[in-house]
């Protein structure tokens, strides 16, 4: 190409620009994402929560024995070295002279653009006297001044400068390659070729191959594919899996096998210490030959899990191995939940009767085992043992109290402050305050359920085969908030109230309580009701007794008994509220009927507007959920014996307790800090009628805080499509027009064929 020259940058200045940009693109994001967290900030956070979590094992491991790791130091050193290199390159670039500058004669003569000829000549004389070589001036500067003077006074030079940017006319444009001069030197060609081949033909393939080999061994949740295969095989093999079998399968994970995981360890002393623990624990099945469940690593993991659930003291040499195993258990149990759900979906999609889906009890036992491992408690132990300073001996005093029957965390929270102090009189003042602080940090979740059918004219009308969307709003509070409410309600109860209002206020203020005093007050209020209201409320608990007995065989007697009591208390409170609503509604029937006769159009318009607003809100919620990236750090869990700080997460799903089937797949709520909205979707039943489902909210960290809420669905027949529907009428007209056009084309083609035959 004429007027252009391609050459290497012999000076190497261009390479500094390229290298500075390249290093900057690496250093800036690496510093933001990889700079180690300030240890002082973490220590301050731990000191602030010491009053509540000071007795937890994970707290003592992190505060009293901080992890001395060289990795943060190496990260800081590497990042600081990168910044030093970046600053050095930026300094070199700033000192590099620009080789290609736009020529401006006015700048050379120190004149403003547009100066007159007389001003140019005057300035030239002054600069010539100053920089002339005969008078001791700079010869190079004098040549530049003379060239600038000619560019502004000579016609040809001025024309060349205006057209080509140079008084001498067009110049050749040179392009430099951003590489240092020694790389393109012929003497170093073999060395450069050797480095290039080593980097791109040896190092790069090895790094990519090792990364690929590691990635194909793990799933998206960083669980070994082999572990998922083991879980899938044994879950399919054992449809109804109790907790003993579940622990056995959980311990068979390849994460505990030193052959597949380098972090897992196997010591010679295990052959002596593990049999001793087996004799202390007892009731361990060692006869079945089911590899890998009977392999030494699996047996060791199972024994250490059972020792943790029994809160046994183990040898010091096994504590590190036990902590490693326990840290892996929540993620492995979540993987087992995923496997069970996938097998249930496969069983529904296949018509083969031989394919058996896992039972609902297996899924719920898996979730319950996660609670047990985090809290270090066995299946039928009291949830009160999650609190500090409450042991088995003290628990007997609390459970066998003559006045109060305390069996759960909610029962203890529902007591008045004076009653709690008298009940826990065996604790010292400091220990009692610590127990109250821990109890106040426990979560209290409020569940609001709203079934609807989105993308439909009437979202509240559920028809056969429609896609039902259950919007569940979870609001998290702490038990400390419940203490404040309890105090306010107690103060309100002490004040004199009018007749007929006391019972209503008591029911509304303590509706969240399931047992204890709330049940007694509800029973008293039922006795005060007239006979008419007793006939209206259906006896739901009596009708569901055989169904509950059937569920006990799968879920365990104690758990289902608690759920039955909670559901019965919920339904009792619901029926009481319905009766109260009927009383108030009967007084307003005449006025409401007249108003509805007078203004039906206005109400219809308001309903349409409300539905439209709900639809817009649901769309906005979906958009926010897509745009927001929420962190899985919610609230730390109080766990006395779990070796790692666990975040508070929940499972929520819908099931049919009558058929013992799963209606919607469990959703793992990992971002519940204050409030969270969850949408569970499932197809409506194929037959119209009333259906009784149950919404389960289960914690993966706490025992005794699960909630069971009824979900009633009234499924109607699908509305037939009207014949004069505008959408179908337009489609029919389009089909008729298309048929007419096709018939016209066929007749036209026949006429053309006949004319051709005549010709």
Task: Looking at this protein, list some descriptive labels.
transport; Helix Hairpins; RNA binding; 10 strands; membrane; 5-stranded mixed beta sheet; 56% helix; 3-stranded antiparallel beta sheet; 10% strand; Sec63 N-terminal domain-like fold; alpha+beta; 759 residues; 30 helices
Explain what you see.
The chain is of the alpha+beta class and 759 residues long. The chain has helices spanning 13-34, 39-48, 50-53, 57-63, 71-95, 105-108, 117-131, 139-153, 155-164, 189-215, 225-237, 243-250, 270-281, 296-309, 316-349, 360-375, 392-399, 409-413, 417-423, 429-441, 479-494, 502-509, 517-527, 531-536, 540-543, 545-555, 557-587, 589-598, 600-627, 726-758, and strands at 4-6, 173-175, 443-452, 462-463, 467-478, 650-656, 661-669, 675-683, 689-699, 707-716. The chain is built from 30 helices and ten strands. The protein has a five-stranded mixed β-sheet. Strands 3-5-8 form a three-stranded antiparallel β-sheet. A two-stranded parallel sheet has the order 1-2. A hairpin with a 4-residue loop joins strand 6 (650-656) and strand 7. The longest helix is centred in the middle third of the chain and has 34 residues, at 316-349. The protein starts with a strand and ends with a helix. Residues 496-600 have low confidence and may be disordered.
């Amino acid at each position: 190409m004429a007027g252009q020259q391609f050459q290497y940058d012999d000076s190497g200045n261009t390479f500094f620009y390229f290298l500075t940009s390249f290093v900057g693109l690496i250093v800036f994001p690496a510093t933001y994402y990889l700079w180690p967290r300030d240890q002082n900030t973490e220590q301050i956070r731990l000191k602030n929560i010491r009053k509540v979590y000071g007795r937890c094992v994970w707290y003592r491991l992190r505060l009293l024995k901080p992890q001395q790791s060289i990795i943060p130091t190496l990260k800081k050193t590497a990042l600081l070295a990168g910044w030093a290199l970046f600053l050095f390159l930026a300094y070199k670039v700033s000192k590099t002279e620009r080789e290609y500058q736009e020529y401006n004669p006015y700048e050379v003569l120190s004149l403003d653009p547009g100066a007159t000829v007389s001003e140019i000549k005057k300035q030239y004389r002054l600069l010539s006297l100053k920089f002339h070589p005969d008078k001791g001036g700079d010869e190079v500067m004098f040549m530049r001044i003379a060239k600038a003077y000619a560019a502004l006074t000579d016609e040809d030079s001025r024309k060349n400068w205006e057209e080509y940017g140079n008084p001498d006319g067009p110049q050749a444009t040179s392009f430099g390659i951003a590489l240092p001069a020694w790389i393109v030197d012929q003497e170093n060609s073999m060395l450069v070729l050797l480095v290039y081949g080593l980097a791109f033909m040896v190092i790069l393939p090895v790094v990519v191959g090792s990364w690929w080999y590691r990635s194909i061994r793990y799933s998206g949740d960083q669980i070994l594919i082999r572990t998922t295969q083991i879980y899938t095989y044994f879950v399919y093999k054992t449809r109804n899996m109790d907790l003993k079998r579940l622990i056995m399968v959980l311990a068979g994970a390849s994460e505990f096998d030193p052959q597949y995981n380098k972090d897992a360890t196997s010591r010679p002393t295990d052959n002596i210490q593990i049999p001793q623990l087996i004799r202390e624990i007892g009731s361990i099945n060692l006869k079945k030959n089911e590899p890998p469940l009977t392999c030494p690593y699996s047996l060791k993991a199972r024994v250490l899990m059972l020792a943790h659930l029994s809160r046994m003291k183990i040898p010091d040499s096994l504590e590190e191995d036990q902590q490693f195993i326990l840290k892996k258990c929540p993620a492995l149990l979540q993987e087992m939940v995923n496997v069970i759900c996938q097998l249930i979906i496969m069983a529904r999609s296949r018509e083969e009767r031989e394919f058996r889906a896992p039972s609902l009890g297996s899924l719920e036992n898996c979730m319950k085992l996660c609670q047990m491992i985090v809290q270090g408690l066995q299946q039928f132990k009291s949830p009160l043992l999650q609190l500090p300073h409450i042991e088995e001996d003290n628990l007997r005093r609390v459970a066998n109290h003559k006045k109060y029957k305390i069996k759960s965390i909610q029962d203890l929270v529902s007591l008045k402050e004076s009653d709690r102090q008298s009940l826990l009189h065996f604790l010292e003042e400091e220990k009692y305050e610590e127990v109250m602080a821990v109890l106040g940090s426990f979560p209290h979740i409020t569940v609001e359920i709203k079934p609807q059918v989105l993308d439909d004219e009437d979202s509240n009308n559920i028809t056969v085969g429609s896609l039902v969307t259950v919007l569940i709003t979870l609001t998290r509070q702490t038990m400390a908030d419940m203490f404040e409410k309890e105090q306010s309600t107690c103060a309100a109860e002490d004040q004199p109230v009018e007749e007929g209002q006391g019972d209503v206020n008591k029911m509304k203020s303590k509706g969240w309580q399931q047992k204890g005093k709330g049940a007694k007050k509800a029973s008293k209020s039922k006795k005060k009701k007239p006979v008419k209201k007793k006939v209206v409320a259906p006896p739901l608990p009596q009708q569901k007794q055989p169904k509950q007995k059937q569920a006990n065989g799968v879920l365990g007697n104690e758990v289902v008994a608690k759920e039955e009591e909670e559901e019965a208390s919920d339904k009792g409170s619901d029926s009481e509220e319905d009766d109260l609503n009927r009383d108030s509604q009967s007084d307003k029937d005449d006025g409401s009927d007249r108003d509805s006769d007078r203004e039906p159009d206005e109400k219809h318009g308001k309903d349409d507007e409300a539905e439209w607003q709900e639809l817009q809100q649901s769309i906005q919620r979906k958009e926010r959920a897509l745009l927001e990236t929420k962190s899985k750090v919610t609230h730390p869990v109080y766990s006395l014996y779990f070796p790692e700080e666990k975040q508070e997460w929940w499972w929520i799903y819908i099931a049919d307790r009558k058929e013992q089937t799963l209606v919607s797949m469990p959703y793992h709520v990992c971002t519940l800090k204050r409030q969270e909205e969850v949408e569970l979707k499932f197809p409506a039943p194929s037959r119209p009628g009333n259906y009784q489902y149950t919404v389960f909210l289960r914690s993966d960290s706490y025992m005794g805080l699960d909630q069971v809420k009824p979900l009633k669905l009234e499924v109607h027949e699908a509305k037939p499509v009207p014949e004069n529907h505008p959408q179908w009428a337009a489609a029919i007209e389009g089909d008729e027009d298309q048929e007419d056009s096709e018939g016209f084309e066929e007749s036209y083609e026949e006429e053309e064929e006949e004319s051709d035959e005549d010709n």
